Description:
Layout: H1 3-10, H2 13-18, H3 20-37, E1 44-48, H4 54-61, E2 65-70, H5 73-81, E3 89-93, E4 107-112, H6 122-134, E5 136-148, H7 149-158, H8 163-168, E6 188-189, H9 191-198, E7 203-210, H10 219-224, H11 227-240, E8 252-259
Amino acid sequence: MSYLEDYYNNYDEEGRLLSRHGQVEYLTTMKYIHACLEGFSAPAILEVGAGTGRYSIALAKEGYRVTAVELIAHNLECLKAKLDGSEPLTAIQGNALDLSFLPDAAFDLTMLLGPMYHLYTRQEKQKALAEAVRVTRRGGYILVAYCMNEPTIFQYVFGANRLQEVTEQNMITPDWHCISRPKDLFELVRTEDIASLDAEVPVERIKLIASDGATNYRREWIDAMDDATFARWMEYHFTICERQDLIGASHHTLDILRKTGGTAFEDWNHSGYTQ
């Protein structure tokens, strides 16, 4: 069994997204998913790395046609167990690095909301992104989530007093970029790494947002909030989540890309998601 399979067989990822602090990432991601979908009358949606279905099932229950691809068998079984058969959702076991079972230009929205967390080489990341772009129609959207480098430096290297450990194990570069291996589970990037990957595929960036912003630095505060206070926190978060001076400090980011060559999406700003 791989490190990744062992992790997800024993970790409640959906529980994280359902927690108060996890809701910030979930609500933010769903907000921007819906903004992208406004441009299509009957969009076909693909989620690669669908996990246990938190996003795919929610969108299918809204009536959208969804194809969910997931690598880990345990996650796929959990996803399927939640379906009652009425949802327009097709679930397939598959790898983000090889979507050859899916045709070119078949989807209006393709989501990679987990795979980039676990791809450790530039070549792997390029392949996953290229495959996502290939199966997306011109003018369609590709949403890619990343785990960011700086929060780990703040909270793990210094906050958890692991500086000596990561130094001795050569887990950090001279310019403080974390070096991950499969046993470490999560690959960490900076904004310039994301931009460099985007430059390799035929896309234009629409937004790069901080999915959870400052939230995970003070999870205990967020989890203790009452509903009214949490609503104000979300109001604050939405006012800063597109600020580029803060992006790199977020634990998670969402790169919103549009496959070039189609009709310009002129209605993005009118939807209210531009600061």
